[in-house]
Specification:
Strand order of the largest sheet: 1-2
Order of helices and strands: HHEE
Radius of gyration: 17 Å
Shape: elongated
Number of domains: 1
Largest sheet: 2 strands, antiparallel
Length: 89
């Protein structure tokens, strides 16, 4: 599987898990009741929004990441590196 798609899928799954935890916690704190299909729908919309954002970010930024932050790769490892300049001191 392409690294770009793995990045987007990882972010979508992470968003889905976070949404499920957030909705479940919010329902218990607000003493609300939501059926399972409503929870699945909420999680699916959140994950879908994450996929859409990742795809748009790849086109806007132009690197292989689903992030809106521009990253460059380490030529030795192929991993993404921070573009921040380190302060001399």
């Amino acid at each position: 599987m392409n690294e770009e798609y793995r990045d987007i899928i990882e972010r979508a799954v992470s968003t889905a898990v976070q949404a499920a935890i957030g909705v479940t916690a919010g329902m218990s704190m607000a003493d609300m009741d939501m059926d399972a299909m409503m929870l699945v729908g909420t999680v699916a919309v959140s994950a879908g929004a994450s996929v859409l954002k990742g795809a748009v970010a790849q086109k806007l930024v132009g690197d292989d990441s689903a992030s809106l932050v521009t990253l460059k790769r380490d030529p030795k490892t192929g991993r993404f590196m921070s573009t921040k300049k380190k302060k001399k001191g």
